[in-house]
Design brief:
Layout: E1 4-7, H1 14-22, E2 26-28, H2 42-52, E3 55-57, H3 61-70, E4 77-78, E5 97-98
Parallel strand pairs: 1-2, 1-3
Antiparallel strand pairs: 4-5
């Protein structure tokens, strides 16, 4: 099952994007033509991902958890179930988002 993913600034790398695409996922990046969000605040990245139905891949999940708590139009959730908001970080960290099924 292909995921629609968004790499925020801190996780945006050619290697990661290439590997995710090779695995069959659709990947959007802040530096992509038509996106143009390189260097923007997390709130802007969160809004873009929410508006486009993209799961966020990040290295700072605590920041996105705070944004999700304020604006729940992006249906991320803490835990280990699959769903619309993904985040990198220490898997033992309770603030790490994962994906959950709808």
């Amino acid at each position: 099952m292909a995921l629609n993913l968004y790499l925020d600034d801190c996780s945006n790398s050619d290697l990661l994007a290439d590997l995710l695409r090779q695995a069959g996922h659709l990947v959007s990046r802040p530096t992509d033509d038509g996106v143009g969000l390189d260097g923007e605040d997390d709130q802007v990245h969160f809004g873009y991902a929410a508006a486009h139905g993209l799961a966020i891949i990040t290295k700072n999940p605590a920041d996105f958890k705070a944004l999700h708590d304020l604006d729940q139009r992006h249906s991320g959730a803490r835990g280990t179930q699959a769903g619309p908001l993904a985040a990198g970080g220490d898997a033992s960290d309770s603030s790490v988002f994962s994906q959950r099924s709808k």
